[in-house]
Model the fold of this input.
Amino acid sequence: MTKKEQPAKDKPARQDIPKSGTAAARFPIVGIGASAGGLEAFESFFKAMPPDSGMAFVLISHLDPTHISILPELIQKKTQMKVHQITDGLTIQPNRIYVIPPNKDMAILNGTLQLMDLPQPRGFNLPIDSFFKSLAQDQGPDAIGIILSGTGSDGSLGVRQIKGELGMVMVQDEDSAKYAGMPRSAAATGLVDYVLAADKMPEALVKYTRHAFVKPRDPITKDEKQTQNALQKIYILLRTHTHHDFSLYKKNTIVRRVERRMHVHQIDNIQDYQTFLTRSEREIHVLFKDFLIGVTSFFRDPDAFAVLKEKYVPELLADKPEGAMVRIWVTGCSTGEEAYSMAILVQECMEKMNRHFNVQIFATDIDPDAINTARSGRYPLSISADLDTRRLKQFFTKQDNHYKVKKPIREMLVFALQDLIKDPPFTKLDIITCRNLLIYLEPELQKKLFPVFHYSLMPAGLLFIGSSESLGQETTLFEICDRKWKIFKRKSGVSNAKPILNLPVPASPEAPSVINPPEAVTRAEEINSFKLVETILQESDTPPCVIIDEKLNIVYIHGRTGKYLEPAAGRACFNILDMARPSLKTVLASAIRKSAGMKQEVVCKEVDIEDNGGTIKIDLTVKPVPAYGALRGMLMVVFNDEKKTKTRPRPKAPRKNDTINRLEQELQYTKENLQTTIEELETANEELQSTNEELQSANEELQSTNEELETSKEELQSLNEESATVNAELQGRLDELSDANDDMKNLLNSTQIGTIFLDMDMNIRRFTDRIIDLIPLAASDIGRPVSHFATQLKQFHIVDHALQVLKDLIPREFEVESLDNKLFRTRIMPYRTMLNVIDGVVVTFEDITEFNRYRLTAHRLSVIMDSKDAILIQDKNGAISFWNRGAADMYGYTESEALKMNIKDMIPQKNHTAFLELIDKAFAGKLFDSLETCRITRSGAVLKVWVMVLALRNEKDMTNGVVTIERIIPETE
Done:
């Protein structure tokens, strides 16, 4: 067995245990999945993660398959840990970061990373789900998964896999995530241990791993009595808060889940955890959810479902008549994937047999959150890993970032909360599925459940259990159909097959009462509408009339209508047909129907109605009311008998002919109404049929278009995620280049050297600020030929010299004068790329005006210093500031002695006035003058000299000193 290097004294030693058939040292492997916005989250995470945590990190991101990822380089800047891009077969080591390469899927086996080609180079891939599933299978309870920023739902199924193996899951909180799709989808599973910002995760992760991996501890079952006592109290707390008893669940399963929750909270003693539970209802709920982890998926164990579809379900359906009831019970359905898989399987069998049955599937579980998820029928896009394209298109619709089960499949299922241990079972069932549930129950409880299943099934009914489960000793109740996939058939004629669970008889739930709040009877709009009608009718000669609504109820009466309408016997009713005189009903009903259908006025002439023992003839008019306010859709019925004043007395006994005539008249009206109704129905049917055909055609086109759009949307979403990742990487590189560019710009500007970069065509590529003094350039001039611009240089053509440099590649240097008499040292050199390719020239202009001035001054000074004449510089007061060698030879004073003297010390008294006046003239503005005077030497001798005075002026053209050139006047013989 290989051992790790000895840890430092301040770090706890790690345990070495065999793992996955190898002798590898045990350390945490953390899978981190991210998509769009993941770079910022990665950087925040690793900036806060200690480099010696003892963990290995595997980063899975949605990358552009055609782009070389620079993610490792960017992350390396935020951490001291070594960052590697994964190669096939790479062995994971602690304190390392491993980054998935582009265009690859990845798995882990015995601590080594295996690369595989993506199923689709472009399109919908789920690399995070794929790796998390592999990590859970390889590392078991040691697996750790983290979901960071990203769009879509990749990682949600992987979270379930890790939690199913009792691993730990972290998710970035939505507020700190740049894109919250993936964190939200993962958190919605209800299986997440920590929801934190990316920079807060390392602290919690280190604490968890130190407790779960590093800290030496005894198993919580070491003291059996203490453990059992604490577990009993935990069972009581759970039963009190959830009404479910876990005391008959397998102890090892319960202990592992309790131990994992203790790691999350860094609690060592099970009694301390039991105390913690008594103070935290939230932790009770989380522990309850942990006990119910349902590792489920669509068509889990697809070969088992294939056997059901090809053989056993068709055999079961073949004996049933067309339209018969098929009842199925899916126990422990969790979030519904298993139940919907059964519904899809039965539907496919019916389509293959070309038969129809009334399918009813009961799906039950004790987890209310899981049942609510199942009822919604909404699942993340990552289910495409378990369902082929045909099933996705046929049985699901894509909505936003989810797949939703289609209505025909959803209507087959009834989801309900049910405790298999204590609640009554469903009966007269054709199939029961109980997969991956019995393995968590003690044998005592399993023995009680199989008779319940036998009792619930119809003769020849099927029992489908998980591949890791068995009937135990209950072989007398069921016969084996498929030993590998654990499919059994109910045996008939078993006398002792009775359920022995203590099952209470549930009371029939009462239907919830529906309360319809009353509608407002009076509204402002309605009052205004009827006031307007009342005003119009009162100011006109309108005969008696009523206004009726769409339900034929009278809502307004005008005039005396007693001859035509009367209240009906019984409960008060304002329906106009119920209140109309018997002889008026048929005509009135026909007129109302026509007016409402054609939206126009209908007039019925000379309608006979009974009146005071006789009959009168009236004109009946029905017309729509103008659509105003509350009157929309109403009709006005007008009764006009003003022209028919003669009333015929009604005979005491109706004659037979009169009765026949009246019946014939009513029959005629009925025939007309019936014919009208038939014609309207036929027209409506034709229109509906035509509309239906158009809608069906449009629906097919829309469905086809929708499928194409869904495919395009998936591809675009994948491309968007890849682009976002590449964009983040490029943004990081762009920031670096921007910083480098700023540094370069400041460097060039600080040199005070004007620089211009030209391409091969003598177009401007770049320039520094200093060059603007010589060539009037702006940022918008980049790309323009430099020959388009006039320069401030005398007789210097940049293009000519630059082309010559490009021709022979020999750098050139010139001294060039500007129009303002400044002197520049100009260098022209070839521009070379990183690949040593000539791609233009670089022209620099260095201002050497001052340098040249100093050079001339130095030259002049050397001439002055070597002159045989005495040359002095003095200020207005006569203080000497310059003394050359000629002055030293002439007057005998050294330079150091003379610079401490005043010119007055060397002038005889009689010559003071004349010389000082000469100096005053120089300072007054006279630039040149001369004078014959005398000087006193160091030895005291008086020399007759000729003095020339020159005024010195500064940059402001002000005299700030004078230069005197003095020469001895030889004595004449």
